[in-house]
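Let's practice the habit of predicting before peeking. Look at the sequence and jot down your guess about where helices and strands might fall. Then scroll down.
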Amino acid sequence: MKEQDLLWIEKTNGLMGAGLLLVSLYWMSWRLSLSILIGFLIAAANFWVLKKVILKAFQKQSSGQVGKLKLGMALVFKYLLLFVSVGLSIIYFNLHMGGLLIGMSTLVISMMMLGLKHIFLS
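Done guessing? Here is the structure:
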């Protein structure tokens, strides 16, 4: 996957998250809107960190420094941070579970849209 594809995913994810947040305002539920926003922010931050870790690993691999242990530890730390942030946001913000899942699913939908874009437009 090229870096421009990753940027396309981030941009599509941002647009979709903003759109879903605006749509959630229709129901006038601050809890739903906050849940969608936090879910989107967690997914976007997680993808951004993953992108940085993987791009750094590829740069080191091309220069001959593999550092598999450092890559593994960075990924373990990233996923631990993801689990803690989701857990704490559920406990302390009293989030709407459906809204949180909708907010976090924007990233997956953006990746699926990129796949469909490559299938039908390439």
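How did you do? Residues 3-121 form one domain.
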